[in-house]
Amino acid sequence: VPQYHVVIPTVKDTFTALSSLVEHERKEGGSDAKIIVFGTTANLVALYAEFFRQSSSLRVYELQSRLSQPLRTRTTREFKEATSGIMFATDVIGRGMDFPNVTSVIQVGLPMNGEQYVHRVGRTARVDRDGRAVILLSQPESFFLTVNRNLPIQPYVHKIDITDDAAATEAMARIDEKSKQKAYSAYLGFMKGFMNKLQVKPEGLVAMANELAIKALRCPGPPPMEKKTIGKMGLKGVQGIVYGTVSDDESPSKRVKPNPEQRHTFSSAPRGGRAAHGRGAGRGGRGGMKNIA
User: Fold this and answer.
1) Phi and psi at residue 37, in whole multiples of 5°?
2) pLDDT classification of 82: cutoffs 50, 70, 90
3) How wide is the angle at C-alpha 269 spanned by C-alphas 175 and 189, nearest 5°?
4) Is the dihedral of CA 261, 267, 270, 273 positive or negative?
5) Are 149 and 19 in contact (CB under 8 A)?
6) How is 28-79 classified by DSSP, letter by letter?
7) Which residues does 137 contact at the CB level (< 8 Å), separation at least 6?
8) What angle do CA 130, 134, 138 make, to 5 degrees?
9) What is the 3-state secondary structure (H, E, C) of 110-123?
10) Would you tell me which of 5, 84, 158, 184 could form a disulfide with 24, CB atoms 3.0–4.6 Å apart?
C-alpha cells in the first residue's frame, strides 16, 4: 500500500488541510472513491463528521464508540454496501470487520503506536484492490515519523492547501458549541499522554488546544471545562484553562458559560508557548486522564 504523510504547521490548520487532502484523494479514487478517516477520539471523530456534513458533497458516515450499537451496526452495513463515500471512525472498527473497495485511508493525528498505524493502513487495498494511505500530523506530532523510520511513509505527492476559505468558516460556524467543547476536552485528554514526546509543558499543551479551539473551531475563547475533569487530566492551575459548568444544552445559541471568577484571556502560542494569564489558578495536579473521548 503506498503510504504518505502530510505535516502541517500547527493544529489550527487541521480542518483546512483535511478538506484539501480529502479532495485530492477523492479525485484519485474517481467516481467510486471510498475513504476512511481515522481520528484519535470519539468526540473528535464526531466533529470531523459534522464538519464534512456541513461542507462536503460526499456521503458522510460515522462510526465511533459513543453511538448506539444499533446505529453502529446500521452504519457498518451501509458503508460496506456503499460504492462511494467517506467514513469517519475510531478504532471501534474491529480487526475482523472488512469494508470492501476502500480507496484511501487517512489518519488524522497521532496513532497510539506503530502497530495501530499499520492496522489502520490495512483497511485499504482489500480484495485485490489498490489503495492509498495518508497520515496527517501537525509539526509537533511529526516525531511519529522519526521514531517509526521503518515504516515506508513518503511525503505526500500533492500540495495541500491550508488557506482558510469562507465556506469552511461558515460550515464550522453552523456546528454547535457543545460539540466543539467535547472535541476540545477530548483533544487535551488524548494529547496529555504525549507531552514528553511533543516536548511541551502543560502550559504549552493547553496553548495548542486553545489555538485549535479559537482558530480552527472558531470558538469565542477557550471552552470551559468542569473542575473535576481538569483535575483528572492533571491540568489544575495551568494557565489558559477556563473553569466552568458545562451546559447539557447543545443549542448553538446557548453557549457554555465560564466561571466568572476564573476567566482567562488567550494569546496564540502555536507550539509549546504559554497561554495568557488568568486569575483563580491553583497549583499542582498530578496524573493523566484515562478514557477521554
Assistant:
1) -115, 120
2) very high
3) 55
4) negative
5) no
6) HHGGG-EEEEE-SSHHHHHHHHHHHHHH-SSPEEEE-TTS-HHHHHHHHHHH
7) 5, 6, 7, 8, 109, 110, 144, 145
8) 180
9) CCCCHHHHHHHHCC
10) 158
User: pTM for this one?
Assistant: 0.83
More confident residue, 120 or 93: 120
Decide: 165 and 12 in contact? Cβ < 8 Å: no
C-alpha cell at 132: 492509498
Host H or E run for residue 17: helix 14-29
Q: Cell numbers 494569564 label which residue? A: 277
Cβ-based burial of 81 (10 A; exposed 0-12, middle 13-18, buried ≥19): exposed
Segment 251-265, tens digit of pLDDT: 333 333 444 333 333
Higher pLDDT pick, 174 / 95: 174
> How far is 290 from 59, CA to CA, in rounded Å?
33
What is the average pLDDT across 171-193? Answer: 96
Query: Which of 82-91, 154-163, 227-236, 270-279 shows the lowest mean pLDDT across its residues?
Result: 270-279
